[in-house]
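Board notes, transcribed. Complex of a protein with acetoacetyl-coenzyme A.
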Amino acid sequence: MAGRVAIVTGGTRGIGEAICVALKDAGYKVAANYGGNDAAAAEFTKRTGIPSFKWDVADFAACAAGVKDVEAKLGGPVEIVVNNAGITRDGTMHKMTFDQWEAVIRTNLGSCFNMSRAVIEGMRARKFGRIVNIGSINGQAGQYGQVNYAAAKSGIHGFTKALAQEGAAAGITVNAIAPGYIDTDMVRAVPPNVLEKIVARVPVGRLGKASEIARGVLFLVADEGGFITGSTLSINGGQHMY
Ligand code: CAA
């Protein structure tokens, strides 16, 4: 695998940051995409030595241009994509605005189409590719206050299985990871009294660590992983099993 180019969307903070660092440590050439927080991205790049690239993953044309830019700067075709970028706009249905709905669908689910479409032809031509989509326990089980997020994440799981069937004959694997509640800014934004109740339902008894998700990504993108496709790896401390 030495030197394969990987893009991690939403790669400068949270779970994405841990994925970038794990891939770099394993010898991949990594590009971290990010959407808005310039200060966090600059700090991330300084600390890790991993270049960061700003574009909006909800924007189809921006994804195509971003992939081209990464390929020019990192000197090779993108062979690994980790669709990790995601946002929450929580609220119960009767209070949710159309903007809250649309932002989450476009950013969390639309991004998977936009990024995969930008790399799929090259992967098919080279007969190799690894796509890992970060879903969620809340896409599997639903979550009060998250019809937008649960729909987008559930969509990611269907997207994964369909694209896996298309990619299989061309050496492209497509898998998902469904994280549970991981100790990141996103989860820290959940009201403390609500989070306390959620953690009480996690058999392992704590939030997960971003590095525990990154470990799963490394496993799925390995060259040796050619027979693993269309699968969902749940990493949630036992909170949801099926
Ligand atoms: N099940 C049943 N009832 C619930 C509930 C639940 N899970 N959560 C809240 N309620 C009830 C409350 O008890 C309350 O009922 P009463 O009025 O009878 O007391 C009612 O719903 C209203 O609750 P709130 O006062 O909290 O209402 P709100 O409008 O201020 O907020 C909310 C609602 C936005 C959903 C808020 O509760 C919230 O942010 N919840 C967290 C949602 C969550 O888990 N998000 C995950 C983010 S992390 C992530 O998404 C990463 C990942 O992939 C895991």
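Strands lie at 5-8, 29-34, 52-54, 78-83, 129-134, 172-179, 232-235. Residues 88, 90-92, 95, 136-138, 143-146, 149, 179, 181, 186-187, 190-191, 194 surround acetoacetyl-coenzyme A (CB under 6 Å).
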